[in-house]
Amino acid sequence: MNTLDKQYQELLQDILDNGVTKSDRTGTGTISVFGRQIRHKMSEGFPLLTTKKMAWKTMVTELLWFLRGDTNIKFLVDNNCHIWDGDAYKNYCKNADEGTFSRKWLKLEESFDGFFTNEEYSLYTQEEFINKIKTDDVFAKKWGELGPVYGKQWRSWNEGFKQIPNETGNGVYNITTTGIDQIQNLINDLKNNPDSRRLMVNAWNVGELDQMVLPPCHYGFQVYTRELSFEERYVILKSRTNEDPLEYSRLDNGDYDQHPKEMTTRWMNEENIPTRAISLMFNMRSNDVPLGLPFNIASYALLLEIIGKIVNMVPDELIGNLGDCHIYLNQIEGVKEQIGREPLELPTLKLPKTDAFWDGFDVSLFGHLEPSDFQIEGYKSHPSIKIPLSN
């Protein structure tokens, strides 16, 4: 049963019924409620909304971009993902210098001596800007950079320059500090201390917020694990072997094992059946519910699946804690259309690569994963809905 779309539709209706009108940084205006939650059992299917068609590849591309530790839109643009185009372009328009304008022309200015020529410059349009990112690596390196956003915080928190007094004390010199790889640390802790209450990754780096084109909307996540019961492991073993283990005898040093449960437990261990389930809870300060939230749900569900695969744990529950939940005033028509649609069955996820790839996984291998590696199976949805994005 697809309860995810129902929860999502109920949240949209809640905002329409109970939201208050608020101003916002984009000037569009919103209706907003505060403090809501979405919960989904991963065993019920992959949480990709069905009440409108979702851009699966776009979502996967952005998550891989985070996991690579990247903060430049070049990777996104090259993979036809345009989620961050508006933020990068807005930054360009605010900070562009003469060397990055698209064209110039001569303008006649009158002076007391007559006329003289003066150069006038024009900014690239957003379309020209994105094409420049695609084709000009020097331009992309400068203007595709978004500052220390998610990828920087996840993979190299506080990496940068630090001033150290020199040996004589007459001055200082700079050294590059090594950042903290929160994803690697999380994986290590899950393997070595899975009951820890410190299994967290944070993107809200207060000291670097002013350097980001946009402060993190989903500012952190926490994972939680528990031991699987014998019955839960048994179901996994049965699904993998396509037979009922308890109906088959096994030889133990030539003697029939009289303890089927112990026998099956050994079998489970031999087959590397997971012993734990893993859940993930993400936290959002602000979310554009019609556009952003469906992506966040699917993105963190995919992250949960990836981490679960790396540490050999079964994805259990996905939870979203939502702060300011808003609908922009120009999105209301599309929202009402989506609320009226009947949810369809949720799809399933097919993870790429072999078990051996994941067993020996190192975070450097995130760079070897491509958006096309991740396939969603059995996805059926209603048509897409054009909903405006406010930057």
Structure report:
- The chain is α+β, with helices and mostly antiparallel strands and 391 residues long.
- It has a domain at 1-70 and 181-228 and 274-391: Thymidylate Synthase, Chain A.
- It contains 13 helices and 14 strands.
- The chain has helices at residues 4-18, 56-67, 74-78, 85-95, 126-135, 137-143, 150-156, 182-192, 230-241, 260-270, 292-311, 332-339, 355-359, and strands at 20-22, 30-41, 103-111, 114-122, 160-165, 172-177, 200-202, 218-227, 251-252, 255-256, 276-288, 314-328, 348-350, 375-377.
- The protein has a six-stranded mixed beta sheet with strand order 1-2-12-11-8-7. A two-stranded antiparallel sheet has the order 3-4.
- The two termini are 35 Å apart.
- Residues 104-108 and 249-257 have low confidence and may be disordered.
Descriptive terms for the model:
alpha+beta, Thymidylate Synthase, Chain A, six-stranded mixed beta sheet
In terms of DSSP E residues, the strand content is: 15-25%
CATH level 1 class label of one domain: Alpha Beta
Q: What is the SS-derived class?
A: alpha+beta
Specify the helix fraction band.
Answer: 25-40%
- Which residues form runs of ≥5 with pLDDT under 50? 104-108, 249-257
Distance between the termini: 35 Å
- Overall 3D shape: globular
Q: What is the succession of H and E elements?
A: HEEHHHEEHHHEEHEEHEEHEHEHEHE
How many beta-strand runs?
14
State mean pLDDT (0 to 100 scale).
88
CATH homologous superfamily (4th level) name of one domain: Thymidylate synthase/dCMP hydroxymethylase domain
The CATH topology of one domain is given as Thymidylate Synthase, Chain A
| Biggest sheet record | 6 strands, mixed
CATH architecture of one domain: 2-Layer Sandwich
Please compute the radius of gyration using only Cα atoms: 26 Å
Put simply, the count of helices is 13
> How is the largest sheet built, in terms of strand order?
1-2-12-11-8-7
